[in-house]
Specification:
Number of helices: 15
Helix content: 40-55%
Largest sheet: 8 strands, parallel, barrel
Radius of gyration: 19 Å
CATH class of the largest domain: Alpha Beta
Order of helices and strands: EHEEHEHEHHEHEHEHEHHHHHHH
CATH topology of the largest domain: TIM Barrel
CATH architecture of the largest domain: Alpha-Beta Barrel
Strand content: 5-15%
Number of domains: 2
Strand order of the largest sheet: 1-2-4-5-6-7-8-9
Length: 315
């Protein structure tokens, strides 16, 4: 079963990709989006966002990481895609799904779903700019204000040369509010010839089973569900496998904390860890205790002492 790890700006960075792919079950990752405006970015920018480029575009566990670009200028996106290809990227993914207001105001992400012709131009330009063997994929939502143009957008992506399409089963207006409208992916699947991957509101094995049934998609992308339950992808690959216990997860949390020390200022590390613990509370009652222990702390040394001391690890 193909299971992709979604891009999540400000959370699912290289450190968390490292940890989640070590746990297992994930087929491929997509990087946080890299915003492209009006210039060719230097290699060091791409290497900062996707340090896996130093490792054949794979996490330390060997899981490929595809670079995601966001923007609205076909030529500039193409130039930057070519730069990524030269750096050894596993592939290029194009973001037509981000619902953030700051992205929308700069004509990026899901607002482009109102402009299928521009979407076609972007995908076609990127496809021409990179070697034929390099995958070019895309991610979209059902639409911007509504889903009336979802088939036009999907056809534009497929006809321009993309090899696969992830669809987050909500519109920009829906944001991240449940439910996800998985059944609306059926027409998209029927309208295009490339694989369609379902995304949105998959928190459990039961959710994944319903998503596959309602969408008809046999490939899934996990976002917050994989962050809240790091063993979810593994369970989806092998439904008879045991769920990841809190005691087994704790060493991975400690590893994440250590990884952040290599690239993140101490004043930011506590906030990023609390983000993860906040989501983990959905799956693990023990995560509530850990979150409460550090909720008011911002000093990295105090967080490490409080969370990774013997008393906490023993719990």
């Amino acid at each position: 079963m193909t299971i992709l790890l979604a891009p999540m700006e400000g959370l699912l960075d290289a450190s968390l990709r490292d940890v989640l792919t070590r746990i297992g079950g994930i087929t491929r990752c997509v990087s946080e989006f890299i915003r492209i405006t009006d210039r060719l970015l230097p290699p060091q920018v791409f290497l900062r966002w996707i340090p896996e480029l130093h490792n054949a575009s794979c996490t330390p566990a060997g899981v490929p990481v595809r670079a995601q670009l966001l923007g609205s200028d076909p030529d500039c996106l193409a130039d930057n895609a070519a730069q990524l290809a030269a750096l050894g990227a596993e592939g290029i993914d194009l973001n037509f799904g981000c619902p953030a207001k700051t992205v929308s105001q700069h004509r990026g992400g899901a607002v482009l779903l109102d402009e299928p012709d521009l979407i076609h131009s972007i995908v076609a330009a990127v496809r021409r700019a990179v070697p034929a063997h390099l995958p070019v994929s895309a991610k979209m939502r059902l639409g911007n204000q509504d889903d009336s143009r979802r088939l036009d957008a999907a056809r534009a992506i497929a006809e321009a040369g993309a090899c696969e399409l992830v669809v987050h089963a909500r519109t920009k207006v829906d944001g991240y509010r449940p439910p996800a409208y998985w059944h609306r992916l059926v027409q998209i699947r029927e309208a295009i010839s490339i694989p369609v991957i379902a995304n949105g509101e998959i928190w459990s094995l039961a959710d994944a089973q319903r998503c596959r049934l309602e969408s008809g998609c046999d490939r899934l992308m996990l976002g917050r569900g994989a962050v809240a339950d790091p063993g979810l992808a593994w369970v989806l690959q092998s439904p008879t496998a045991s769920e990841l216990a809190w005691a087994a997860l704790l060493p991975f949390v400690a590893h994440y904390w250590q990884l952040m020390a290599h690239h993140m200022a101490p004043r930011h590390r506590a906030g990023r860890l609390k983000q993860w613990l906040n989501l983990l509370r959905r799956r693990y009652p023990e995560a509530q205790q850990a979150y409460d222990a550090v909720r008011t702390l911002n000093d990295a040394a105090l967080v490490a002492q409080r969370l990774f001391g013997k008393a906490v690890l023993a719990s």
